[in-house]
Specification:
The structure holds 2 protein chains of 2 kinds. By secondary structure, chain A is mostly helical. Chain A has one domain. Helices cover about 75% and strands about 0% of the residues of chain A. Chain A is built from 14 helices and 2 strands. Chain A has a two-stranded antiparallel ribbon with strand order 1-2. In chain A, helix 1 packs antiparallel against helix 7. The two termini of chain A are about 20 Å apart. The mean pLDDT of chain A is about 90. Chain B is mainly alpha-helical. Chain B has one domain. Chain B is built from 11 helices and 2 strands, in the order H-H-H-H-E-E-H-H-H-H-H-H-H. A two-stranded antiparallel ribbon of chain B has the order 1-2. In chain B, helix 2 packs parallel to helix 4, helix 2 packs across helix 8 and helix 9 packs parallel to helix 11. The termini of chain B are far apart. Classes of the chains: A mainly alpha, B mainly alpha.
Chain lengths: ~325, ~290
């Protein structure tokens, strides 16, 4: 797919996203699924942003959760409206991102993955530890102000559109960064770090910047989820939460703006579809299998599927 | 003063015993990395499978669980070889991120398959030597800990002899030193990949058996924390370095147990990470690491 076609695809998706509630109506269950899907689109896009510099994190739940805790606490301490607290609270995630990024930027992929994988688990143990549970509520967690107090279909509809706007904003920010000189520097570092350095690009600076941005918007997504649910517990640091954005981004297509969006929608449909069959562990097994198969047979993700089909057809014509 | 020394010795032995399991995991990871240049993030799942294989055979046969190493190690070697062949071989060389991500798929697959087969209840086995303690230098130690430490040492000696003395072991070392060179010398490097993955999984299986006989609880999701610690160890010791893994494992086991003793049990898992960060800041290639790449 040429970049242009892909951009039109994004615009088309946006129109569909705007119209979907007209079809769904005020069904609270479906609206909740859609809201969580939007939040995870933001989260996956933020995770995917890191891969542009050739880095891969296995512990983004740390940022997702820290954004959630930061925002929930700030909202209650300063009695701010949740929609404002989200953007300040995510600062906690950005700080953590800066810290872990500073350790990781010089590391090779393996080390980076291992350190981030451990980081989420360690943050969880700290949150529930005796020393911090006074603030964080330990394993019980804490309550968070609802995005739209009161609940009900209309409020959920407002939430949906508000998060849609935030999601579009985030993706536009990523798009602006990636089409700028910074985006070129990312690509240079990813393809050949030595040559990038020879061309006067400081890889450490750009990697750290990518880490900061990625952590911040993961924090925003985490904060939105927490305020949507109305509570936060340390379960938010679980391995699952770290792995979902990876699964979504890989299935959609790494290093593309549309990939995480397509991946999140497709996998959410599969996931919720499987739920109706009453599978519990089976769902995870199928997702794991799907991930392995996509990596082996469709390494560029679902968005490369039209290309692959065209290629296949051309081959058969010859 | 003898009272203080007693405690230090006691905690030290606990640390050594905890270190044994980490060492077995970390050496497996290092062996695989050395030969294939792949880090298997699903390595903790092999530990878990080793634990459940031991559990199943124990429930069927009622043998002394230590004997069941004979079952868990070969079964895990088979599983490891199969996974290498089906999942890692097709994507080898397509990019490091892919190799990392495929192990995530494996984590989901293996954990939940185990939950389907064995349910996700907490399980525990009691070792027949559970109540026996022996006194060393005036400190009472559970016999199990000593057996575990000795078993690990024997496994390590066996591995050393295999890598140093046998043709296969030499071929594996050659592959890990220089893959292309080994290929030119007529070594089937793909076979070496399979064998190293198998041995790595087998060592994790042995760690699983030792985990079970020491009376620790296990669930299908138990693998990730020990795996994280094994990662910490190989970073501390240096990627690909087997002596580094042994030293790192002992350091981590000791540090953890002294941390429990001094600042409290909740910090047990955090301490490994703190050591990791300190090592990475001062020596990004690990204590025994040869070079950055």
């Amino acid at each position: 797919m040429s970049p242009k076609v892909r951009d039109y695809g994004l615009v088309l998706m946006l129109i569909v996203a705007g119209l979907v509630p007209l079809i769904v109506g005020l069904n609270p269950y479906l609206l909740t699924v859609l809201i969580l899907m939007l939040i995870f689109i933001i989260y996956s896009s933020a995770w995917n942003f890191l891969t542009y510099t050739g880095q891969g994190s296995l512990g983004h739940a740390a940022f997702f959760g820290l954004g959630g805790y930061g925002s929930a606490l700030i909202a209650s301490w300063l009695s701010l409206p949740p929609f404002a607290a989200v953007f300040i609270g995510a600062g906690a995630a950005a700080l953590a991102g800066l810290f872990i990024g500073a350790i990781c930027v010089r590391l090779k992929e393996w080390f980076l993955a291992m350190v981030t994988f451990g980081f989420a688990i360690i943050i969880q143990t700290l949150v529930v530890s005796r020393q911090f549970s006074g603030i964080t509520g330990g394993w019980d967690g804490i309550a968070a102000a609802r995005l739209m107090p009161g609940g009900g279909g209309t409020n959920l509809l407002i939430e949906y559109y508000a998060i849609l706007v935030i999601g579009v904003m985030v993706i536009v920010i990523f798009w602006l960064i990636l089409r700028s000189k910074t985006g070129l520097a990312f690509a240079a570092i990813r393809e050949n770090e030595l040559e990038a350095r020879a061309a006067g690009i400081n890889p450490v600076k750009y990697r750290l910047f990518a880490f900061l941005v990625s952590a911040y918007f993961s924090g925003v997504a985490g904060a939105l989820e927490v305020h949507h649910l109305g509570y936060i517990t340390p379960e938010i640091f679980g391995v699952d939460i770290s792995f979902w954005p990876i699964i979504y981004s890989i299935s959609g297509g790494l290093m593309t703006l549309a990939g995480p969006v397509v991946g999140t929608i497709a996998i959410t449909i599969v996931w919720d579809g499987l739920q109706t069959f009453g599978l519990t562990y089976g769902r995870f097994i199928i997702i794991g299998l799907l991930l392995i198969l996509i990596i082996i047979f469709l390494p560029k993700g679902l968005i490369s599927l039209p290309d692959r089909i065209r290629e296949y057809r051309d081959k058969r014509k010859k | 003063m003898t009272g203080g020394l007693d405690i230090v010795l006691q905690v030290g032995i606990w640390g050594l015993y905890a270190g044994c399991i980490y060492i077995l995991l970390a050496i497996g990871l290092n062996l695989i990395f050395g030969v294939m240049k792949v880090v298997n993030f699903a390595h903790g799942e092999f530990l878990m499978l080793g634990a459940y294989v031991t559990f199943t055979f124990y429930a069927i046969s009622g043998f002394n669980p230590y004997v069941l190493l004979v079952a868990s190690v070969p079964i895990l070697i088979l599983i490891g070889v199969t996974i290498e062949r089906l999942c890692f071989r097709p994507i080898l060389g397509t990019g490091k991120l892919n190799e990392i991500f495929i192990s995530i798929g494996l984590i989901y697959l293996i954990q939940n398959a185990a939950a389907v087969i064995w349910t996700d209840e907490y399980r525990i086995i009691h070792s027949p030597f559970e109540s026996i303690t022996i006194s060393v230098f005036g400190v009472n130690l559970p016999l199990d800990y000593l057996i575990i430490i000795i078993t690990t040492i024997l496994i390590l000696i066996g591995l050393y002899l295999f890598l140093r003395k046998t043709r296969l072991g030499k071929a594996m070392r050659a592959t890990s030193q220089n893959r292309k060179g080994a290929m030119l010398m007529g070594i089937n490097v793909e076979k070496m990949d399979m064998i190293s993955f198998g041995i790595g999984a087998g060592l994790a299986g042995a760690a699983g058996t030792l985990w079970v006989v020491s009376g620790q609880v296990f669930t299908p999701y138990m693998g990730s924390i020990p795996a994280v610690k094994a990662f910490a160890i190989i970073i501390i010791g240096g990627l690909g370095s087997i002596p580094g893994a042994i030293v790192g494992g002992i350091i981590l086991g000791l540090a953890e147990n002294f941390a429990i003793f001094t600042i409290g049990g909740a910090w047990k898992d955090a301490i490994s990470f703190l050591i990791l960060i300190v090592v990475l800041i001062f020596k990004p290639t690990g204590l025994f690491g040869e070079s950055a790449e």
